[in-house]
Amino acid sequence: MIRLHHVPESRSMRVLWMLHELGLEFDVETYPFDRSLRDPAYLAVHPAGRVPALEIDGIVLFESGAALLYLAVREGRLGRVQGGVDFAEWLNWLHFAETISQHVAALTQQHVMIYPAAKRSALVTKLEPMRLAKTFQALESRLKGRDFLLDEFSAADVGVGQALYMARHFARLEPFERLSAYYLQLSQREAFKKSLPVDGESRLYGAAFYEVLDG
Ligand SMILES: N[C@@H](CCC(=O)N[C@@H](CS)C(=O)NCC(=O)O)C(=O)O
């Protein structure tokens, strides 16, 4: 039995996308992005009440990067063989998803979670998109002469592609030509589309793009 604990549009989408890429059978337990993640029943699954949590093979993976790595190794697909330059590069880009997502998390907190709105920080909403754009520049450089982060599509593209899916709400992809083409290509994959929120599911982001706050 494989069960994914999931909040639509959050980092758990990374694992959902990967499960679809691998064509595995699994259940999804979907939560709204609210206090229900702090229920004692859920805290017994994830020690900090966050998503994703992936129940698999009698264990729980509660870091999205760890879950992608575990699934790639378990299935012998979308990873790279241990040892060698490819493996090191794969690990780097797999974990680069979190370098992007840390800024997205800070911005989601400011724009979506903090109430009342007067408590939100204009400075954070200005600085974090600039830092996000630096991560876009790093990807733009990496994608020179490449369609994917490695020679072929891998779990690193799932992690980074999903991070971009969230990051687009706060920093523009358009100034980065190769990155825009890369994201477009990833977003056309069937497994990506299957990991999007379905009708009626609560959404994390009410706006397509969040501008810097005044102040
Ligand atoms: N590094 C962790 C971060 C997990 C995380 O913070 N997830 C967010 C959603 S993107 C969450 O569950 N937030 C709920 C909360 O902070 O209460 C991972 O990649 O799995």
Count of discrete domains = 2
* CATH architectural type of the largest domain: Up-down Bundle
Radius of gyration: 17 Å
Largest beta sheet: strand ordering:
2-1-3-4
Which residues sit in consecutive blocks of at least 5 with pLDDT less than 50?
none
In round numbers, the mean pLDDT is 97
Largest sheet entry: 4 strands, mixed
Number of helices: 8
Number of strands: 4
CATH class of the largest domain: Mainly Alpha
Order of helices and strands: EHEHEEHHHHHH
Question: Considering DSSP H and I runs of 4 or more, what fraction of the residues is helical?
Answer: 40-55%
3D shape: globular
User: Based on helices, strands and strand pairing, what is the structural class?
Assistant: alpha+beta
Give the distance, in angstroms, between the N- and C-terminal Cα atoms. 50 Å
CATH topology of the largest domain: Glutathione S-transferase Yfyf (Class Pi), Chain A, domain 2
Name the bound molecules. glutathione
Binned strand content: 5-15%
Detailed description of the structure:
- The protein has about 220 residues and is an alpha+beta fold.
- It contains eight helices and four strands.
- The protein has a four-stranded mixed β-sheet.
- The longest helix has 29 residues, at about 85-115.
- The radius of gyration is 17 Å and the shape is globular.
- The termini are far apart.
- The mean pLDDT is about 95.
